[in-house]
C-alpha cells in the first residue's frame, strides 16, 4: 500500500486505519467499473483512467469514518462510498475541460481530455455520474425507505443546488471581486456539498436520530469549507510535485480565492477555526468519532 496517501501527518493508528480503508476501497471502486476492453473501449478506458487515478479518496474515507461512528459495517457503506467517488471523478473531468478551468494536469498526469480527447472526456464524466446512481439503485437495501432518502440526498448534493450550482457561481466569479460571504456560499456548494453528504448519507441510511444527524451535518459543513480554504492556500504555497497540479492556477485564471479575499494569514486562521468548530460538533455524538476528528485536523495540515 502506498503510504503517501496521507503524508502530511505522522502515521498514527488512525492513519494506518485509513490506509487500510483506501486499499480496500480501490477494489470496491474497480469492481463496478466496466472492463477496459469492453465496448465502447475508449469510453470505458477514459472512465477507468479518471476514476482509478488515485488521490486521497477523502470522500469515501469520510463515509467509512462516519460509518465507524455509527457502528455500521464497511459493506453497508461501500455503495455510498463508490457512488460519491464516481460523482467526484466525473466532476473533476468536467472541471478540467477547456470550457471550465482548462487544466492540463490532474494528480500528476494529463487530465482526461488531454489523455483522450474533449468529447470522450465529457462522455466519460456523464457515464461516471450515471454509474454512481446505478450502483446506489442496485446495491442499497430495497426494503428500506432510508435507501431512497440517501439517494435523494446525494442527487441534491451534485445538482443545481449543490456541486453543479457551485461550479456555475465559480465560473461567474472569474475576474470579479466578491466578498467572503459570496465566496463561502460558492464553495459550500461546489466543494462542500459532496463532502457534507459523505457524512450525512451514512446517517440517513442508518436512521440516525435528528439531533445527532444535525451535529454530523454541521461537522461535514465545516470540514468541507476547511478543505476548500486549505486548497486555496495550497494553490499559493503548495509544491506542484506534491499537489499534482499547477500552483497559482487560480491566480492565473483571476478566480477569487480565500487568500485573495482574506489574505493568506487570515485564510490560515479561518481554516483552523473551521477545524475546531467541526471537532466541537463531534462532542455530541455517542459513537467512536476519533477518526472523524483526525480527518478534521488532516484537512488543514495536508501538503496536497
List the helices and strands and how they pair.
Elements: H1 13-32, H2 41-51, H3 58-70, H4 74-95, E1 105-106, E2 109-110, H5 112-115, H6 118-139, H7 145-158, H8 163-172, H9 180-190, H10 192-206, H11 210-237, H12 240-243, H13 249-252, H14 258-262, H15 264-282, H16 290-299
Antiparallel strand pairs: 1-2
Distinctive features:
mainly alpha; Farnesyl Diphosphate Synthase; 2 strands; 70% helix; globular
Description:
With 304 residues, the protein is mostly helical. The chain has one domain: Farnesyl Diphosphate Synthase (Orthogonal Bundle), CATH 1.10.600.10. The chain contains 16 helices and 2 strands. The chain has helices at residues 13-32, 41-51, 58-70, 74-95, 112-115, 118-139, 145-158, 163-172, 180-190, 192-206, 210-237, 240-243, 249-252, 258-262, 264-282, 290-299, and strands at 105-106, 109-110. It has a two-stranded antiparallel ribbon with strand order 1-2. Helix 3 runs parallel beside helix 10 (192-206) and helix 10 (192-206) packs antiparallel against helix 11 (210-237). The model is unreliable at 1-11 (pLDDT under 50).
Describe the structure concisely.
With 304 residues, this protein is an all-alpha fold. It is 70% helix and 1% strand. It has one domain: Farnesyl Diphosphate Synthase.
The CATH superfamily label reads Farnesyl Diphosphate Synthase
Shape: globular
Strand order of the largest sheet: 1-2
Overall residue-averaged pLDDT value: 92
Distance between the termini: 18 Å
Number of helices: 16
Low-confidence stretches: 1-11
Number of domains: 1
Strand content: under 5%
- The CATH topology label is Farnesyl Diphosphate Synthase
Helix content: 55-70%
**CATH architecture group name:** Orthogonal Bundle
Determine Rg (CA atoms, Å): 18 Å
- H/E topology pattern: HHHHEEHHHHHHHHHHHH
CATH class: Mainly Alpha
* Class from helix and strand fractions: mainly alpha
Major sheet characteristics: 2 strands, antiparallel
Number of beta-strand segments = 2
